[in-house]
Amino acid sequence: MAMESLTLREALIALAAGHLALTNQSYRLLALEARSKALRSLANHVVAPNGDMYHVEAKVAACLTFVIDDIGVATGEDWKDHMKAACHLITSAEVTTTSGKLKGTEAFKLTAEGSWILRNFAYHDILGSIASRQKPLLDASYLTDIADVVDSCTGVATELLALAADIQRIEEEWHLGRSTTRQNQSRFLSDCANIEQRLKSWRCRDDTPTELAAVAYAYRAAILIVLYRAMRDQLYSNQYSGSADTSRTHTILFLPETCCDQVTEIIDSVSRIPVDSTSESPLLFPLFLAGGEASELGDIAVIRYRLQKLWERRQFRNILRALTVLEDLWHRRQNGEHNLDWTCLTDMPGEGLLLT
To answer: From CA 160, how far away is CA 145, in angstroms rounded?
Structure first.
């Protein structure tokens, strides 16, 4: 795609130059020039008429390249604007086929490149929504028939992203305060129980390579932590009057132990992935979620070590940012702030986090 799309090619060059400049300052000026040139090219092409699907795919790919550049090389939260641009391009796409017009995500599914772009978008959209605790930009149902592949972002775990998106959806609906009646509280917990069952019953195919299976199960455990955190937030933030709710009390007491079980699962899964292997590239998300719940010093040491090695190998700034947040969190908890949550450290303006 980059060989035929100048916009995408310049975006990739800007990413490569910026990444190189992080460890070799002599490339700093070159990186700034490449980024400026690529941004101008992208701006000109995004506002131009969409044209055929090939050019639309290239423009979305360029936007996603800048998402990676924004989180891994630059600073701030410009990645959100590039995600919104990619979302707009996806939803406004239209192509005419022999069977009629296809729009939005369906238009992208016509090609292998388009399907890959959708999975890449979902990866950043859904994991970004978890850190910001907002609903994803796109409903993740488009992943249904393009998830059964080995993907460059999540291996064989793409299907799990859709379940993570469901958690964000029901959590946002709850936080919107549409109703605090017992009926709606019960429905929230029922929806959570349904997602929990689907997550726990999910399995890799028998022929999945060991390392890819380990990545997938680490993701499953991390998404279970996301689910339990959503349940914990809802349960702790709502006080009932009258008689005690036995099932609610039991759930509150059970959740901390449940999260710890998933921390153990993540550490066990990660231990099956060699340090510096290609398969460890997607591990920032599960390691960070495990770190946010870990309380045992041994678990913290393992998480710290794997994140440090991931940073040393990849040199992307969001990895260092994630490790810095966890170090601050662990330090403050050890000094008496036992109930401090990592969201308190990432919710400040300009302090967002994308765990990709």
So the answer is: 13
Give CA 100 to chain center in angstroms: 34
Angle at 178 between CA 177 and CA 183, to 5 degrees: 105
Q: Which string of DSSP letters, residue by residue, matches 312-348?
A: HHH--HHHHHHHHHHHHHHHHHHTT-TT--THHHH-S
**Gap between the Cα atoms of 226 and 61, Å rounded:** 28
Rounded CA-CA distance 32/17 in Å is: 8
DSSP for 83-145, written as a single string: HHHHHHHHHH-EEEETTEEEETHHHHTTSHHHHHHHHHHHHHHHHHHHHHTS--SS-GGGGTT
Closest CA to 7 of 49, 67, 48, 58: 58
User: Model-level pTM?
Assistant: 0.92
**pLDDT digits (tens), the chain, 356 positions:** 888 899 999 999 999 999 999 999 999 999 999 999 999 999 988 777 766 898 999 999 999 999 999 999 987 788 999 999 999 999 999 998 888 899 999 999 999 999 999 999 999 999 999 988 888 999 999 999 999 999 999 999 999 999 999 998 888 777 665 555 666 777 888 899 999 999 999 999 999 999 999 999 999 999 999 999 988 887 776 643 333 454 554 555 567 778 999 999 999 999 999 999 999 999 999 999 999 999 999 999 999 999 999 999 999 999 999 999 999 999 999 999 998 999 999 887 666 689 99
Amino acid at the residue 181: T
Would you list the domain boundaries of the chain?
A: 1-146, 167-356
- C-alpha distances in angstroms, 162 versus 167, 182, 323? 9, 28, 26
Distance CA 330, CA 256 (A): 17
Residue 102 β-bridge partners:
95
